What we know:
The protein is an all-alpha fold. The protein has 4 helices and no strands.
Amino acid sequence: MSEKPAGESRDRMESAVGCLLAVLGAAVTGAFALPRAAYSIEGGFEAHARDWGVILVELPLILFAGLTVPPLAWAAATRWLRPWAAVLVCAAVVALGLWGLSAAWHPRQAPGPGPGPGL
Length: 119
């Protein structure tokens, strides 16, 4: 008698998957963006190249997008597709987002060891 309807358990499963996708999206975008922005955060020698725009604006927006885009794609895809297809749609959306991020976002990097001015 205390058995839950099938629709409610399905809704809970879809909500749990959405939360899991939010955590995974934030972790993946953090693992992708933080190493690229490491030089802007550290600033190099005596922090002369620290970029506060990257630290205060770009990284939080990238992490926020990684937190919100996968669950939104999941919610939109589960309306019309089966759950396994919705997972594929979410993976494709995240892959395209990371590709677009790598194509458009170029924070300052450490100078290479090539020839430069002498001492």
